[in-house]
Amino acid sequence: PPMIWFLATVLLLGLALALQAGLVAFAGYVLLGVYLLSRFVARRWVNDLHADRACDASPREIGESTEVVVTLTNRGALPILWVLVEDLVPDRTTRQKPASLSVKGRRLQVASLGPRRKKTIKYTVTFLTRGYYPLGPALLETGDVFGLHRRHRVVGSPVYIMVYPKVVPLPKYDFASERPIGEVRLQNRLFEDPTRTAGVREYQLGDPLQRVHWKATARTGVLHCRVYEPTTLAGATLLIDFHTEGYPKRSEPHRSDLVVTTAASVAYAVSVLNQQVGLASNGRDAADRIREESLAAEGEEGYETRDAARDRFELRDESDRLRPVVVRTRRGFDQFQRIREALARLELADGLTFPQLVLNVTPRLPRDATVIAVLPRVPTDSAAALGALRRQGFAVTAILVGLSDSERLDAHGWLLAEMVRDIRFVNTEEEFAHLGGNAAASVPVSYDVSVAVE
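Predicted structure:
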């Protein structure tokens, strides 16, 4: 370490002066000068370096790529003999199986730069899964030629790329909302379906002309209007359980990605019908996961090793977030885009449980929209939370993702005990073809429901 060299030099000079050894004193002075010069050069080199990043930060689909160009500039008047440059990418995104990112090109290089010279580093990143990925900053390491001093510095603001989740079109959508029993003030009135005529009645003041039944009017000589059946579709609010307890490591990232794909596909199907749709989850936003001090720490020195500097800008695994991710339920041409962006950034968290999520968001749920819970497991407290929604007059559907046969049986029994009868199962993307159909079709016929309830 540099401090040991400095103390050894001072001790050597002290002994030389005490013993009046001129040659030893001269050697000590030379060593001290080399030490101070190397320290000055290393600090000057690392401070003269600057990095600019060029990258298209627009959102991507799974499988798309982007090119990253990092330009390293020596702004000083001294030549830099060597510098090790590494453009940082989160390690776990490339090392996990399957990997989230594929990197082609050399993002780790050793370079030498003359005064006012530049060095360009290019590499290509392919996004293999949905997520919110930081590319950068650049980690620099340089030092003197004697190896006495090493300096580390992080330069260049990172670029964040959002990768949208996969959306599978559902052949059919059959999640029917129900008008609650009793006097409930609806936030969104149920609309009539103009494709389903229920009958004919006499014209009333204020009826639009497009409702006039001209054949009945001509036959009776009195204006008559069509009466349409009310639609049973009033949109949906998705409740997604993204607590870490429901996602064992042996099933990751397959199960979490399948949950997100399921939610995105259902939200897309609702938006195509021009119905209200919303989202609430106990997961965390990936933007919250990225350390807030990363940008503030740009240009910091004082890292003793490369690993310490790299860990300073790594992403945290733990999360104590107690505020749910919410996209309010409403109509709009851009509503699905908001939900898709929220799902792209959604990540597992260990702070808010699913029952706590239900308790938190219930006052904001529109009662004329189906509550669709997307769950990786159904413990008794989660089933009770859905049962409480059911008793409050909500139409509740449960979509269970990635469950084994025994887990399906237990979950089906707990939900039926809470009067939640619309239960559907998804284990693969191929099963999406039956997801939007009749709920009974998704329940395995081998299940003895009476046994499950008991």
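Summary: The first helix runs from residue 2 to 19.
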